[in-house]
Write a structure and sequence with these properties.
The chain has about 290 residues and is an alpha/beta fold. It has a single domain (about 5-265), classed as Spore Coat Polysaccharide Biosynthesis Protein SpsA, Chain A, CATH 3.90.550.10. It has ten helices and 13 strands. The protein has helices at about 15-25, 45-55, 75-85, 100-110, 125-130, 135-140, 145-165, 185-190, 200-210, 245-250, and strands spanning about 5-10, 35-40, 60-65, 90-95, 95, 115, 120, 180, 215-220, 225-230, 270, 275, 280-285. The strands form three sheets. It has an eight-stranded mixed β-sheet with strand order 9-6-8-4-1-2-3-13, sandwiched between helices. A three-stranded mixed β-sheet has the order 5-10-7. A two-stranded antiparallel sheet has the order 11-12. Strand 1, helix 1 (about 15-25) and strand 2 form a beta-alpha-beta unit.
């Protein structure tokens, strides 16, 4: 396998169904990718959906899960990476549809010393409801993208290229639904910092530590972007993370170690009170 697609999800099986359908129809990459769906402790039909899909598709599909204890996206992504085998990692979310050439573009842009990032196209509720699995299998979903949203992403992509040419620190920004990097670079910083619990800033912290290693961010926005299906915001969502524990934690790490302590490898798992707890389980879809 050349690339592992790490898909994070929690209690949105119909979104995940469409995400997996979009991966199933990726063009020009047959036999080159694996998929790991990494779940944050769903108690609905999510795991059954993954198992059913794994028996049908022609690419390796596995999953990880653990007991739900708050929004733990950093932990999900670390567990997904640990359960994969490919040398190159692509992180996205289960509420995103990938354009048919998404993986091909990411594979073409792989470079040593680079991390590839982008953003997503955001759809409203009505448009999201119009895109079902049959639509994804039969046609090009880009026709559902509003012109204004496509223009916003193009302008953002052009700004990102200017940031690259100017070597501006922390620009362009990494966004967790569209990040790709070499596995060994991910391991060198010990993955995502699991001290971020709740919505936001785990991807910005990762970028800080990757840049401290001398890695540069390359934008893929002018080539491809996931299409984000609408859903209500998570309970922990606060715009710009204003006043959140994650923002306080992020600023407390101004002298952050490049290799985070609570990451891909750690001596123990802890709950919110710091008590060691069961590290959870990793299971393979059959």
């Amino acid at each position: 396998m050349d690339i592992a697609v790490i898909v994070s999800t929690y209690q949105r099986p119909e979104h995940l169904r469409r995400c997996l359908a979009s991966i199933e129809v990726q063009a020009g990459v047959a036999g080159r990718f694996e998929v790991v769906v990494t779940d944050d402790g769903s108690q609905d039909e999510t795991l059954r959906l993954i198992a059913t899909t794994a028996r049908r598709v022609d690419f390796p599909l596995t999953f990880t899960t653990h007991a739900h204890a708050g929004f733990r996206l950093a932990r999900c992504r670390n567990e997904g990476a640990a359960a994969s085998t490919a040398p190159y990692l692509l992180f996205t979310d289960g509420d995103c549809i990938l354009p048919r050439d998404h993986l091909r573009h990411h594979l073409a842009l792989r470079r040593r010393g680079r991390v590839v990032g982008g953003d997503c196209i955001r759809l409203d509720a009505a448009t999201s409801a119009r895109i079902d699995v049959d639509v994804i299998h039969d046609g090009d979903v880009s026709r559902f993208v509003p012109r204004a949203e496509a223009w916003r992403l193009r302008l953002k992509g052009l700004r990102a290229k200017a940031y690259e040419w100017g070597r501006v620190p922390m620009r362009p920004r990494l966004s967790g639904n569209n990040i790709a990097m070499w596995r060994d670079d991910f391991e060198r910083v010990n993955g995502f910092d699991e001290g971020f619990v709740g919505w936001g800033l785990e991807d910005r912290d990762l970028q800080c530590r990757l840049e401290r290693l001398g890695l540069r961010v390359t934008s893929i926005l002018l080539a491809t972007a996931p299409i984000h299906l609408w859903h209500p915001a998570p309970a922990s969502f606060v715009r710009n993370n204003a006043g959140t524990p994650n923002l306080a934690y992020f600023h407390a790490l101004r002298q952050r170690p490049t290799f985070c302590v609570d990451g891909l490898v750690k001596p123990w798992e802890r709950d919110a009170q710091g008590t060691p707890v069961d590290a959870g389980t990793t299971r393979k879809a059959a």
